[in-house]
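Format notes (please read before filing issues)

Several people have asked whether sequences and structure tokens are stored in separate files. They are not. Every record keeps both together, in the order shown below: the sequence lines, then the token lines. Line labels are part of the format and must not be stripped during preprocessing.
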Amino acid sequence: MSESTKYVLDEDRMPRDWYNLAADLPVPLPPPLHPATGQGIGPDDLAPIFPMAVIAQEVSTERWIEIPEPVRDVYRLWRPSPLVRARRLERALDTPAKIYFKYEGVSPAGSHKPNTSVPQAFYNKEEGVRRLTTETGAGQWGSSLAFAGSLFGLEVEVFMVKISYHQKPYRRALMETYGATCIASPSDMTESGRAILAKFPDSTGSLGIAISEAVERAVQRDDTKYALGSVLNHVLLHQTIIGEEAMEQMAMAGDEPDVVIGCTGGGSNFAGLAFPYIREKLKGKTVRIVAVEPASCPTLTKGVYAYDFGDTGHLTPLVKMHTLGSTFMPPGFHAGGLRYHGMAPMVSHVKELGLIEARAYPQTTCFEAAVTFARNEGIVPAPESSHAVRAAVDEALRCKAEGRAETILFNLSGHGHFDMQAYTDYFAGKLQDVPYDEAALRAAMADLPTVAAE
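Then the structure lines:
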């Protein structure tokens, strides 16, 4: 087994439960608050947006939550996903480190997102919902929900951040192939979108704006619910199948990671790999866990830990998270899935507890690492995933400089086959490291809800 490249579990070894980190937190997660009253919210407050099964998972403190058999049946289309030893990359870097990656690009949509879109579609179908609305940045989540909706007979309406809508037409085509409707956000279909367009006619959009539009559409009809691709607890929960599989596969390889890495936008793929390892860290295991984000939207490294809205239109509950302010609009860099003003409350919480590290990279250095990876391992990483690749390469080079043979594990959350315009721009020298607007960031921070000061 020492010379194996791939470590693949049989389908009958797929995890039967998702792991809920809330059960093992040394300090409970601060509760979400009602946006109007500032008081705690209950299931009835979330019922217009989510099905009750999802709400129950959102507030659960049970350690293990069973994966329904119909969801497992769909998961078998691509799960368990492979763990790969990046031996060629190791040789190219001349590092004593061992580099492994969990490859989520094998899913039908090409990323980790179906891990949660499938159960969300299932739970909605079970409760009689006929239509789902959502937002998407780079399109991975939108195409994943479109895929899940097609399997369970649900209509899907996707508000796609406008700059990504134009940058990534094939993501849009994929959503439409699965039967979804894709709308550039901000749009004139909602009050939230029209308000943004009145103020910023040339707005390139943001995930916060797209969330507002999708939530607004969801609450207008009784047969419609909203589905979220990241940030909230139930989404992170569904993704932990990644880490649970990875632990079994690392045992197959006779290895354990010293460093665990994932890119972070809203936090879902990072949590999926990292949360099971945080559980082990809380038990005393020594492991560094690194969250990597874009320097143009540096939520964990530059944001404040405060209560804030999850959307620009202020329709969602207030959650305590690392935030740049709900009105912050990052520049239009290519990693559209990482252009979110906030970070998952659970990821933010473990950062505050000192259980994880965070670092930020500009996009050109990430693409440089992605090209090195592709030319050695054969997989073209998504722009989002390239941030994790960059960090893994840097950790391997650190090991080389220090003469340390550490084991590095990162989540390659998706492939970049729909993102080749970004690579074309990189090779043409058109890709720039555009900084965020400091004045806009200060203005967005100044607009935080007053509860943030409490």
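For reference, the curators noted about this record: The mean pLDDT is 93. The longest helix spans residues 385-402.
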